[in-house]
């Protein structure tokens, strides 16, 4: 079913041209107080066999009301199960025409306008009998604005899979060479972030090194401030990613901070069970990274242990029965190497508080129970970690549009 949405002014001729040439199955008139009689005449003369509905714009000079009425007209067309919708902006006031365009762009609507070269010298109106119908392309469709809006929403919501889908939709459109380069490079950036989010750091770094500079260069050439800001923000995070990769799997505070940032992203998505599980691992990693940084060996890799490593602690370090035993063993290990006031020792001194904070994790589906973890449960443990040591802070969040 083809539906025509028609703004109505006081002049009938161009409206009749639109009606006869579009030949719709249904028409929704947008009329003002002054043009309402004209809509009535059109219904009388063209209404046979035609579904019709009239919406009255009380204040024809109001852009807001015109916008709202245009949305109502679209809803009516959809109620009629329209398969094609044309919006003709010829008649009515300028705010009525502007409201129609603002409301219906990016919604799969085709626009039209009745003009003509022969005009009345006094009024400037097209002379009757010389009207010409022009079909107008929705510019947002040509420019992919709807897909880009969908991409930025998905990016900001950390829905990277959906962001890729929106980029693919953009790449399937006719593009200029620079647009093609930008969207393909941006696709590589998103794929890099997906790898980063999965802790596949070498793969993430490889993709970002290849695609981020090109995407940023095109955005700068375009002068698109938001794109430049976001991509420069990612560029500023690359040294942290490089530090993780250069560590070659060894425990490091760069990796710990990345893990905490990953936990924050899970919490933003409402996945507090996953977020709290990451904090639990962060506690273990904090001890491992601290020992690696101070004493130069990996707690979980016996081949790196120095001479004099206490025999009694080996089994407890490699196969602890829980976090508290690991903290106890690491604290004893520091004492054996004459270390005082270490992170492991500070954590072990807080073991009673830690046990209380971790109770929700133990009761969750990811540990030994079925109880859901709430925002407050996550934030209490997170804030405890943040307050304990400056190194226990997440990397900056990925920038948003």
From TrEMBL:
<dbReference type="Pfam" id="PF09670">
    <property type="entry name" value="Cas_Cas02710"/>
</dbReference>
<dbReference type="Pfam" id="PF22205">
    <property type="entry name" value="Csm6_6H"/>
</dbReference>
<dbReference type="InterPro" id="IPR014082">
    <property type="entry name" value="CRISPR-assoc_prot_Cas02710"/>
</dbReference>
<dbReference type="InterPro" id="IPR011335">
    <property type="entry name" value="Restrct_endonuc-II-like"/>
</dbReference>
<dbReference type="InterPro" id="IPR054008">
    <property type="entry name" value="Csm6_6H"/>
</dbReference>
<feature type="domain" description="Csm6 6H">
    <location>
        <begin position="143"/>
        <end position="238"/>
    </location>
</feature>
<protein>
    <submittedName>
        <fullName>CRISPR-associated protein</fullName>
    </submittedName>
</protein>
């Amino acid at each position: 079913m083809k539906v025509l949405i028609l703004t109505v002014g006081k002049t009938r001729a161009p409206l009749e041209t639109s009606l006869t040439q579009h030949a719709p199955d249904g028409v929704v008139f947008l009329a003002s107080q002054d043009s309402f009689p004209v809509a009535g005449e059109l219904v009388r003369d063209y209404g046979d066999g035609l579904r019709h509905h009239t919406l009255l714009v009380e204040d024809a000079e109001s852009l807001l009301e015109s916008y709202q009425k245009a949305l109502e007209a679209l809803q009516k067309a959809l109620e009629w199960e329209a398969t094609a919708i044309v919006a003709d902006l010829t008649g009515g006031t300028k705010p009525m025409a502007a409201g129609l365009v603002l409301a219906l762009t990016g919604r799969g609507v085709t626009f039209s306008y009745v003009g003509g070269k022969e005009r009345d010298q006094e009024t400037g109106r097209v002379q009757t009998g010389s009207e010409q119908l022009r079909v107008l392309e929705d510019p947002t469709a040509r420019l992919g604005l709807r897909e880009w809006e969908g991409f930025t929403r998905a990016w900001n919501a950390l829905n990277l899979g959906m962001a890729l889908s929106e980029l693919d939709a953009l790449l399937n459109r006719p593009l200029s060479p620079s647009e093609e380069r930008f969207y393909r490079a941006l696709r590589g950036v998103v794929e890099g972030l997906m790898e980063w989010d999965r802790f596949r750091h070498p793969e993430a770094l490889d993709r970002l090194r290849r695609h981020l500079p090109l995407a940023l260069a095109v955005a700068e050439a375009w002068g698109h401030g938001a794109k430049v800001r976001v991509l420069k923000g990612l560029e500023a995070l690359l040294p942290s990613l490089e530090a993780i990769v250069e560590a070659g799997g060894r425990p490091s505070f760069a990796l710990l901070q990345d893990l905490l940032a990953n936990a924050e992203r899970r919490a933003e998505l409402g996945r507090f069970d996953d977020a709290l599980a990451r904090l639990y691992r962060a506690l273990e990693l904090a001890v491992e990274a601290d020992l690696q940084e101070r004493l130069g060996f990996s707690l979980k890799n016996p081949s790196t242990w120095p001479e004099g490593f206490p025999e009694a602690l080996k089994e407890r370090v490699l196969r602890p029965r829980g976090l508290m035993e690991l903290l106890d063993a690491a604290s004893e290990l520091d004492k054996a190497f004459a270390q005082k006031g270490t992170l492991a020792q500070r954590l072990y001194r807080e073991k009673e508080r830690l046990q209380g904070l971790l109770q929700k994790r133990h009761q969750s589906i990811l540990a030994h129970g079925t109880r859901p973890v709430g925002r407050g449960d996550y934030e209490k443990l997170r804030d405890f970690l943040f307050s304990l040591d400056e190194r226990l802070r997440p990397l900056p969040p990925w920038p948003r549009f």
